[in-house]
Specification:
By secondary structure, the chain is an all-alpha fold. It has 15 helices and two strands. It has a single domain, classed as Orthogonal Bundle (Farnesyl Diphosphate Synthase), CATH 1.10.600. It has a two-stranded antiparallel sheet with strand order 1-2. The longest helix has 28 residues.
């Protein structure tokens, strides 16, 4: 099991400087906004994406100011999408804390997300980081497309495995791909290396999302209630596999539950049991490990050193993590 602490140790100095720079980047002259920004900074997560930025940069050379700005842009965009996601999902909890919309209502949450987005854009534009901005703007476009595609398909419960991968490639993997690509660009300025690192990040991001989807069928406390995706009618890989591999009668029963009884604990448990029994969990885990291995194959094109080892550990952490 990879330890996040040992990986952070490789870039401890960079992460420490980054925290100060990120705090500065969200400052505002509006007292309400400043209060909300302090709240966001206090409850930030593991900062996996900035770690990917710094390690991808360090793989090719020492980090520079452009690397710090790329990491800040990634974190600003990621935070903006989380704030907006909580509004879209009507979610009142995030990482065990109240969400912004729970404390300050939807209007404020939407405007806070917009503020974070604009701060990120200005940070890049004011420093002529056009390539970084291009890489990250593409990710924002894809994330919106992925979210809308998921909403559209979950209404009709019509989702093939192919469409599921299209959704997570856009929704989750695009930002991780951009983190790796932007990090590499800041120390190489090399389009081919940037492209390879984006591909690496995309494969790692898909594996990361499948792991997240698997948590919904487990019993580990992760700040996200088990069965949450079922309640929200989100069709993830374990359930898609199950629906495609049970008898037509059972499939009909499961779809009925997902459409009409998806908030009843008793029925959610039935769906989770069916997914386990039909091999949906094992299938999703196998797919996840396949994407992880493809990511590592791309990474191994570059010379072996402690930073490359750290990136490998970080990829393994995303698939081995218990929360």
């Amino acid at each position: 099991m990879s330890s996040i602490d040992s990986i952070q140790g490789l870039i401890r100095e960079e992460l420490s400087i980054f925290e100060d720079k990120f705090r500065d980047s969200v400052q505002s002259k509006v007292p309400l906004l400043d209060r909300i920004m302090q709240y966001i900074i206090k409850r930030k997560g593991k900062q996996v994406r900035p770690m990917f930025v710094f390690l991808s940069a360090r793989l090719f050379g020492p980090v520079n100011d452009a690397t710090y700005r790329a990491a800040a842009l990634v974190e600003l965009l990621h935070t903006a999408t989380l704030v907006h996601d909580d509004v879209v999902d009507e979610s009142y909890e995030r990482r065990g804390f109240f969400s912004i919309n729970a404390l300050w209502k939807n209007k404020v949450a939407v405007l806070v997300g917009d503020y974070l987005l604009s701060k990120g854009l200005l940070l890049s534009l004011n420093n002529n980081d056009f390539e970084t901005l291009k890489i990250l703007s593409d990710a924002v476009k894809k994330m919106s497309e992925g979210e809308l595609l998921q909403i559209e398909r979950s209404r009709s419960l019509n989702l093939s495995e192919e469409v599921y991968f299209e959704i997570i490639q856009n929704k989750t993997a695009s930002l991780l791909a951009s983190s790796c690509g932007a990090g590499a660009w800041t120390t190489t300025g090399d389009a081919q290396i940037t492209k390879t690192m984006q591909a690496f990040g995309e494969q790692a991001g898909i594996a990361f999302q499948i792991k997240d989807d698997l948590f919904d069928y487990g019993s580990v406390a992760i700040g996200k209630p088990t069965g949450n995706d079922i309640k929200e009618k989100k069709l993830t890989l374990p359930i898609i596999y199950t629906l495609n591999n049970v008898s037509p009668g059972r499939r009909k029963d499961l779809i009925y539950i997902l459409k009409n009884e998806n908030r009843q604990k008793k029925y959610i448990r039935q769906v989770i049991e069916e997914v386990h029994n039909s091999g949906g969990i094992a299938y999703a885990e196998e797919k996840m490990l396949g994407f992880r291995d493809q990511a590592l194959q791309l990474l191994n094109q570059f010379p072996q050193n402690t930073i490359r080892d750290g990136l490998e550990e970080l990829v393994r952490f995303t698939t081995d993590r218990k929360y």
